[in-house]
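We close this part of the discussion by returning to an individual protein. The amino acid sequence and the backbone structure tokens for this protein are reproduced below:
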Amino acid sequence: MSKNILIVGSGFMGTSIALGLDQTDTCCVEQDHEYQSILKNESIYNEVFSSYESVSGTYDLIIICTRQTDALRSILYFCEHFPESLVTDISSSKNFLVNQELPKNFISSHPICGSHKVGPANAEANLLKDKEVIILSNTINNDVKNLKDFWHSLGANTSEMTFDQHDKYYAYLSHFPHFFSFLYKEILEEEGIDYQKYSGDSMKEILRLSEANKDLWNEIFSDNKANLDMLKEKIKKKLL
């Protein structure tokens, strides 16, 4: 894959991807004024566009790194306005894509990495090294190969799944653990238990997940609600 890349959303994940790229022409779209101010003092991107409409140039790959609720709009916009570009996203659940007529130049991705930290100031250049990236495609073509090659260039491994398989697996492997951590922390606070003072390392590790952005995770929980509800029912039966 050539090396003209546009990252839409310069938060923790988007800028971590940008920092991991070697000798690329990378631009980004960032509408948040605080993030724009941070990026002005850095030399991470060749250009920072402040709106979708202001984006110019040609790109081999466009990576949608927005919040989950903004992802579909962003995918459709950039697929339409940059039809020669391959477009991918990094959303953590994929149900919002299932019943859509997705553009031919779009292939979905999910890098299995992240942090409770947010924003470009906390980005990590080696975030994807030795991590898995799930490619959501039922078609083997050059675009899939090129997308895999891109993720491999960041040190990642790749696997393929269907949308349904992906959302079931990650309800179990990621979404429910985060849901439980948020819920358990809420219960501890309601009971007035000082978990920060009295917890051992194992409890702190469980509660570490609750340090993530709850609004962002609520978007994921809502999108993957069907799989989460099925898992909750399985857990209830085990507890009876």
Observations:
- The longest helix spans residues 163-190.
- The chain has ten helices and eight strands.
- The longest strand covers residues 4-8.
